[in-house]
Amino acid sequence: MSDIPYQPLTQHTSAVAERLGRLRSQVAAWFWVDGLSRVLWLAIGLAAADLALDWLFRMDKAQRAVMLVLMLGGIGCLVFRRLVRPLSATMSDDALALSVEARHKELGQGLISALQLARLEGIEGRGMSRALVEQTVLRGTKAAAGIDFGGVLDGREFRLNAVLLALALLVFGAIGVGAALRDSALNIWFNRNILLGDRSWPQQTYLVIERVNKDGAVVFPRGEDWTQVVSVTPDSKEIPDTVLLDFRRTTGRAPLAMKKKSQRQFEATFANVIEPFEFRARGGDAVTAWVRVELVEQPAVANLKLIVTPPKYTGGKPEELAAGRGPYYVLAGSSLVLSGAPNKPLVRGELELDGELFVPPKNATKPEDRHFHGKVPLLSGGGLQLGGTVPIDKLVIGTYTFDLEDTLGLTSRRPMIFAIRKRADREPRVRVRLIGVGGMVVAKARVPFSCRVSDDYGITAGSVAYRWKGDDPMIEATTGSIAFEQLKDKLGRPELALDDVIEIEPLKIPTGTGLSFRFEASDNDDVSGPNIGRSSEFLLRIVAEEELRADLIRREKEQRQEFERLAKNQDELLTDTRALEAAVKSLPDVEPQQKDLLMQLHKRQKLVGQNTSAIAERMASIVVEIQNNRLEEDGGKMQTQLTKEIIEPMREVAGGLVPQALTGLDKSRRQSAVLAERNAALAETIARQAEAAAKMKEILEHMAKSEAFQEAVNLLYEIQKVQTDVHDQTNKERQERIRKILEGAGSEKPKPPQP
Fold first, then answer.
1. In terms of domains, do 85 and 126 share one?
2. Which of these, 230, 246, 252, 669, could form a disulfide with 598 (CB 3.0-4.6 Å)?
3. Is the pLDDT of residue 362 over 50?
């Protein structure tokens, strides 16, 4: 019995599958009837609303086009929602079976179980009983045999939708018949709102806008007044009392009431029309189509070319000004050449001038003499060319106006204009830098400087203006000027460079006096100049030699104290680097925190080098001040000590030893995983750091010796000053004693001199 083959289980469910297929067709038919009925009635409603709106408000073509798009969009959305989306959905047998079971609770889950079990293959291999599965399938199909699958659909709603669909088809048929009848309301609506034609609704009044060309536009001159006429046609049954003009594509224009010119004509006057727009006429029950206004250009200049010739002293060539980008800035003493072509034939063309002259006449004593009023004729070439020249003596600051007239007698209500403004010839730019000079100098000092002068066109002179004043307020300040002979061969150029010195001693400025000076340069402007450019003002105080020396010692001490801090930092760096070397000497690779320590050591070492270099430069400036103030001969002991024992060793540390130590730290970090190379790099770094630390200690010793030497020199100067003061006071007392003896007062004892 086991060899008898089993029949496929799907044979038991084939009848159910066929019934589900018929149910699927019924569902599709239900969706078609429901969707079509709704779509057709929506189209009928929209068409009725559109017809009513167009009948009441006489919509123009653009409005009708918008309504058509809205109607098609609404119908399309409903078609997608009620037809496309439901019909495109796939309904499986299982989904339909579940819907049937939901409608008929007595089935339980027998129908869906029979369908799913019938599709199983290899039942025995799944550990299931073939007989039990077959009994389950038979029980489910038998239970579904007496069930009406179509009962899951709402038959009442289907019949209602079918009736609505039939009625909609009848209404659509009637609309089609009405649209086919000539001059019917539906025919007119179909032409206006579906075909977007120009037919009008039946009305009592018909209006015509006069002077409309074949392009549907009215042409008038731009900027001129014009009169528009609207007529009532003879076939109109009613003549309106008022005709209004509506406007669009323009801002701020309300409807305009036209004046009644005759029984069937109305007119309206527009003033100064400068932009195109559209208008329509309405009166009674008539509304015309929109009419476009096209403007004819008034006489104007096309391809205007302005060429300005600068004054001779600039050495510049004639330059063309960009048309339409005014106002134009030109130099005083320039001339202007104009050329161009009118946009139409002209009978008159002039350029009106009115403004303030750049260069007024020398005998101009009244304000009105500084103004020029006149016209320059421009027309040539039979009215087809414009050209003229504004000479130097007539070039004015103000507005230039083109006065044009065409062959029709039209003139520009808004003529073409351009403005001329005065372009200033700037004074020379003077940039000066003092070299090796502080705020205090001695009376025999020299002041080196580097001066750079630039001008737009040329420099004709350069000097230094100075001023000094003593403590006595009753004595006026002394002023003067120093000219530079070196500039004679360089004058006339737009840029000059001068590196020279100012000698203070020839100026005979007493000690304790404040000196101010600035550099000045003049340009080659021979029209409204020359213009003088000035540098920033420099202030110096003339002091005694011992005061300057004391200030230099103070500054040197400040640098020594700063350098002591750097030397201490270098010792700490050396200690930290040695500690790091001991920690990683036997490690195959350094840890992350040790790499971070290497980076920190690198930053600290770099900062030591930068600060050392800065101190060396400040010490070098002290040496330059010693030279410029002539505190000793060039190559003197103080300069030699500072240069050879302090400045040069500092630069050696900052430019040699520190970079070598930085290179070693970088190499140690990059080769952190290579034991031999890392240790060698660290050893080299420590050697350079130790050498730098020793060098810095040696420099500190020399700085201390230099301070002691300079303090000793200053002490000698103070002793010499005290001795000189005692000598002066002794002579003064002796002379006073002699005077008193001669006057009979010799009994008094002379007072001892005060140190």
1. yes
2. 669
3. no
